């Protein structure tokens, strides 16, 4: 997607054309659950997460989400140092704090909605804005060096109309959520260095 395009509804995910096996895996799992629901009396509710982040999550090893990766890089960098950022910093994303996600899942599971439901923040930021926010929260002076690397699509904009119909809205804005996340990751980085 390009920034500003209309939000994709849950139904817009199919026909799908994911760019990797991870995307296919998620959609296939949804199809299996929906098929099971059609043949039983089980109500199937599928929460589609939009970039969940927070403390006590994966923060290294290549499986972490962008907020955790940037927090780790900033925590590892010396004050006045430089971190590498994949791409050019212009890709647009919405990041959802874990507590908001849990609230959305809980509400969904106690609702009458069935099928896929997008759960995520409506606060869209560029990767560059994400990096600048982490640097601000860290209280460091950090320089950025943009390098080649996987950046995914230019933008993702999912409709949250279904979850909003239940009264749910993300409450934790990015700066606040990073204020909880960065100190935890910084502690993990220091502990890992001490164990070396």
Describe what this molecule looks like in 3D.
The protein has 196 residues and is α/β, with parallel strands linked by helices. Helices cover 41% and strands 15% of the residues. It has a two-stranded parallel sheet with strand order 1-6. A two-stranded parallel ribbon has the order 2-5. A two-stranded parallel sheet has the order 3-8. 26% of the residues are buried. The mean pLDDT is 92.
What's the quick description here?
It contains 6 helices and 8 strands. With 196 residues, the protein is of the alpha/beta class.
Annotation keywords:
196 residues, 41% helix, UDP-galactose 4-epimerase, domain 1, two-stranded parallel sheet, two-stranded parallel ribbon, alpha/beta, 6 helices
Helix content: 40-55%
Q: Which architecture would the CATH scheme give at its second level? A: Alpha-Beta Complex
CATH superfamily name?
A: UDP-galactose 4-epimerase, domain 1
The number of helical segments is 6
Can you list the strand order of the major beta sheet? 1-6
Topology, pairings included?
Elements: H1 21-39, E1 45-49, E2 52-53, H2 66-76, E3 82-86, E4 92-94, E5 96-97, H3 98-109, E6 115-119, E7 124-126, H4 127-138, E8 143-147, H5 161-164, H6 174-195
Parallel strand pairs: 1-6, 2-5, 3-8
Antiparallel strand pairs: 4-7
Helix pairs in contact: 2-4, 2-6, 4-6
